[in-house]
């Protein structure tokens, strides 16, 4: 699906747009990032929830999830958003939001297996968080350059397509 259709899907099945029209006054949101090196077992989900609860993390950006599709699920009141691809089963990114962050979330877009974004309404501003999994180095220098240039070019296109007044956090 295209980003526009992913937005429509998110608003229809995950969050109603009416939920974010009048979000409460923003307190400080605690944001963290974690390369989880795969989420194939239920133990990792438990560890993520335990980490977020223990450290009072509102939003957790995940990399290297190994998730192979774009989808969402809810575990213990926490929303898990994933972006992945069957063609890249060792990649995948995701974002987890604690119940405390739910009033601020307005949109999720899984661009591909390396880039996912979540939009937040904070203090009258729109803030976008990106969970990124940049390509690692491979032995073939030409292949390495192509992979990295493709990733950074796509990210540049996504970021520059947003209004200039938007706040961005990349992790």
Tell me what you see in this structure.
With 171 residues, the protein is α+β, with helices and mostly antiparallel strands. It is 26% helix and 30% strand. It contains 3 helices and 9 strands; from the N terminus they run H-E-H-E-E-E-E-E-E-E-H-E. The protein has helices at residues 3-13, 42-54, 141-160, and strands spanning 31-35, 59-63, 71-75, 78-83, 93-97, 105-110, 115-122, 125-132, 167-170. A 5-stranded mixed sheet has the order 1-2-5-4-3, with helices on one face. Strand 1, helix 2 (42-54) and strand 2 (59-63) form a beta-alpha-beta unit. It is globular and about 50 Å long. The two termini are 24 Å apart.
Summarize the structure.
It is built from three helices and nine strands. With 171 residues, it is of the alpha+beta class. The chain has a five-stranded mixed sheet, with helices on one face.
């Amino acid at each position: 699906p295209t980003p526009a259709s992913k937005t429509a899907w998110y608003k229809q099945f995950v969050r109603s747009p009416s939920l974010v029209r009048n979000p409460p006054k923003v307190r400080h949101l605690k944001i963290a990032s974690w390369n989880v090196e795969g989420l194939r077992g239920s133990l990792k989900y438990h560890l993520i929830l335990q980490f977020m609860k223990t450290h009072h993390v509102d939003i957790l950006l995940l990399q290297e999830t190994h998730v192979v599709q774009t989808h969402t699920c809810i575990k213990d009141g926490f929303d898990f958003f994933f972006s992945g691809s069957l063609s890249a089963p060792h990649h995948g990114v995701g974002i987890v939001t604690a119940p405390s962050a739910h009033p601020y979330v307005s949109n999720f877009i899984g661009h591909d297996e390396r880039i996912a974004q979540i939009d937040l309404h904070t203090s009258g501003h729109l803030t976008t968080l990106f969970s990124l999994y940049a390509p690692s180095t491979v032995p073939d220098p030409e292949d390495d350059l192509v992979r990295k240039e493709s990733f950074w070019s796509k990210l540049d296109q996504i970021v520059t397509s947003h209004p200039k007044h938007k706040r961005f956090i990349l992790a």
